Amino acid sequence: MLIVLNNKCHFKKGEFLDYQKELSKIDCKSKMILCPSFLYLTDITLGNISLGSQDVSIYKEGAYTGDVAAVQLKSCHVSYTLVGHCERRKYHQETPDILQKKIRNLLDNDIIPILCIGEEKLSREKNQQLLSLSNDLDQVLSPFSKEEIARLVIAYEPIWAIGTGDTPTIEELDEVFSWLKEKYSQTKTIYGGSVTLENITSLKTVSKIDGFLLGSLSLEPRTLQKVVKILEN
Ligand code: PGA
């Protein structure tokens, strides 16, 4: 089971240090991956928690002011990176060719890309979610070999579920994850979008989900501990 914590743009330095202390007390046998702000990547002493970043440059390294390259992330022990989160696609106009460059740089540096995909509310209402996901995946992953795709993690995060309190039904999740596993049988697939202490018991019944990507929940170590306990029982 993978548990990915996406802190997004939260925590000032002192808050992060307190958070980190709380987080390190969590009893977790699963693979937990913390994706904090870039600023704190080198401040982390988290024992068995793996390090992730929320983004990476499309460039290899050099004169690219403000960018953080995969080779730099690797040198700070980052082993996972989120790619194509819907907030990056929306606020930074990230297109499939940008995502391809990021994935290539990450794979070249032995960092596992966590590719985020998810349909808009309208696609879901028209029952076109698989078509929308398929178009996106085919576009983004077209330059990569089967072996390379097997090294990725795919995070299914419906856009309408992120930060809204809405989640797909168990049947809807079964449909998407069965389809994903048929398409990419070797790739780990996780779910993200409004995961809470209240819905985790039901979400964990979807057998093809290999883990969860947590936004708001990642910010609350005490609640997170309860969620981890449920996932591991
Ligand atoms: P959320 O965010 O858990 O707050 O809905 C998930 C995400 O954006 O990855």
Per the principal axes of the C-alpha atoms, what is the gross shape? globular
Radius of gyration: 17 Å
| Number of separate helices | 10
Give the distance, in angstroms, between the N- and C-terminal Cα atoms. 12 Å
Q: Are there runs of 5+ residues with pLDDT below 50, and where?
A: none
Q: SSE layout and pairings?
A:
Elements: E1 2-6, H1 13-24, E2 31-35, E3 50-53, H2 70-75, E4 78-83, H3 86-91, H4 96-108, E5 112-117, H5 121-125, H6 129-141, H7 146-151, E6 153-156, H8 170-183, E7 188-192, H9 200-203, E8 211-214, H10 221-232
Parallel strand pairs: 1-2, 1-8, 2-3, 3-4, 4-5, 5-6, 6-7, 7-8
The chain binds 2-phosphoglycolic acid.
Features:
eight-stranded parallel β-barrel; 39% helix; binds 2-phosphoglycolic acid; 10 helices; single chain; alpha/beta; 233 residues
